[in-house]
Amino acid sequence: MKKIVIIGLGVVATFTASCNQLTQQAKEEADKVVSQTNESVQKVINDLGLVYVEEGAQNIITYDEVNAAQQAWCDALVNIGQLKEEGGDYKAFAEQVLSDAYNYDNGKVFFKPTLAFGDQTFRNDKKGALAYFIGGDPAYPNDKGFALTPWVKARFDNAGANNEGIQIYGSVAITMGNVWVTGKDGKEVMVDKTWVFKKGKDGKLRIIVHKSSLPYAPVAK
After folding, report:
1. H or E stretch including 154?
2. What does the alpha-carbon distance between residue 211 and residue 154 come to, in Å, rounded to a whole number?
3. The pLDDT value given to residue 32
């Protein structure tokens, strides 16, 4: 009996040692991957001259990605109105834009549109956001469809020069500046705009905060 017990303990000890070795090996492999990822992220940080990135960031947004996302939003705004004018399915397109450009399908979004007020000032769900852009929702009777004006051109410009109006914190980026939209009559309207973008696991940037307002115009004395 003693011999059997001794052998049993030896097997257990060997098995335990093997598990420890595997665990240590797995940890070393994981540390290696993290180290490589950190080095990759750090290279981007250095190349872009970023100073705000949180410690231990494993994913990072670039200035080019942020600028592209802002332009894509401007283009989508114009396309919604254009589809409406041409008799296309602008509603389906607008819904797809909200899925592609905003984070509604993945988590929270804080959206304060330009022309919203009262208890419908903030549109934190997709239904409210869709109503703002294309109207037609009886739950939002004041929404006429901002994107249906239609706008024939839209552009953006961030505050400052050389991407000074963009802050990058790893997988999150903040922008502040203006958006100009032009109607069919050629008149251009400017709004103040703040966006916060988050990079998803699929590598796409989506809006998690959108704050828009008309510029302050002091009364002339």
Report:
1. strand 151-158
2. 17
3. 53
